[in-house]
């Protein structure tokens, strides 16, 4: 694919910007945090060069989470999630594979270990994918996910959010983040969000309502731009320094 992102070695993680691995307010970090010094390893040729992704890999409905599970419409508030993927100079990054996954409108995932009391939607699978166009643009049609409780504190709830995965030129070049929704009061109360001490980084994860892209009598729109490197980059869970 001619528009694939530039290949090259993986960049070492900037741990000064990343939340500390051990954050007792986020309970599972207590058992997951490493107890020994971390060791950085270099990337391999396969991680740096491929495979690349093209639109011929996508199904017709892959970016339509409302219909792509059964063909029948999912239940919930219909929304458009859209934006651009750019580098630190504001230049479009075409040919990037984006994958998203999320809970349904009631706040429940289609996963055997999700025991939340909210019902499963039989027509909602909760995942989709697309590839950015030549202008770096992407779009998903989906359902606004519900908030849900999780066994962290006595009464902790995750804000409404959508998980986002961004691939570079190969499977080893993968960034993972979460998109939150403007105006959600649970964002400020979330122990996971609060592991990020830089408020500007948190703000980059909150998608504003975009009425210019909304469809009247159909769906609202939220804009989530993704910046891969530099001072304005999106905060990524697995690699804060970007692609």
Automatic annotation (TrEMBL):
GO terms for molecular function: protocatechuate 3,4-dioxygenase activity. Gene3D superfamilies: Aromatic compound dioxygenase (2.60.130.10). Residues 81-109 form the Intradiol ring-cleavage dioxygenases domain. Pfam families: Dioxygenase_C, PCDO_beta_N. Keywords: Dioxygenase, Oxidoreductase. PROSITE patterns: INTRADIOL_DIOXYGENAS. Its EC number is 1.13.11.3. InterPro entries: Intradiol_dOase_C (IPR000627), Intradiol_dOase_core (IPR015889), Intradiol_RC_Dioxygenase (IPR050770), PCDO_beta_N (IPR024756), Protocat_dOase_b (IPR012785). NCBIfam families: protocat_beta. Belongs to the intradiol ring-cleavage dioxygenase family. This is Protocatechuate 3,4-dioxygenase subunit beta. It comes from Acidimangrovimonas pyrenivorans. The gene is pcaH.
């Amino acid at each position: 694919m001619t528009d694939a992102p530039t290949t090259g070695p993986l960049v070492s993680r900037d741990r000064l910007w990343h939340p500390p691995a051990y954050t007792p307010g986020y309970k599972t970090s207590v058992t997951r945090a490493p107890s020994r010094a971390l060791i950085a390893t270099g990337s391999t040729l396969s991680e740096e060069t491929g495979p690349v992704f093209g639109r011929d890999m996508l199904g017709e409905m892959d970016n339509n989470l409302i219909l792509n599970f059964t063909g029948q419409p999912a239940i919930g508030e219909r929304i458009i999630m859209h934006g651009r993927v750019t580098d630190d100079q504001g230049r479009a990054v075409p040919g990037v594979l984006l994958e998203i996954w999320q809970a349904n409108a009631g706040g429940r995932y289609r996963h055997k270990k999700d025991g939340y009391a909210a019902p499963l939607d039989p027509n909602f699978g909760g995942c989709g994918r697309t590839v950015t166009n030549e202008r770096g643009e992407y779009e998903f049609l989906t359902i606004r996910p519900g908030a849900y409780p999780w066994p962290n504190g006595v009464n902790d709830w995750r804000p409404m959010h959508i998980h986002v995965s961004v691939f570079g030129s190969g499977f080893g070049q993968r960034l993972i983040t979460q998109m939150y929704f403007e105006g959600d009061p649970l964002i400020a109360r979330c122990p996971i969000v609060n592991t990020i001490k830089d408020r500007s980084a948190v703000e980059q994860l909150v998608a504003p309502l975009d009425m210019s892209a909304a469809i009247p009598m159909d769906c609202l729109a939220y804009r989530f731009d993704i910046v891969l490197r530099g001072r304005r980059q999106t905060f990524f869970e697995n690699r804060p320094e970007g692609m």
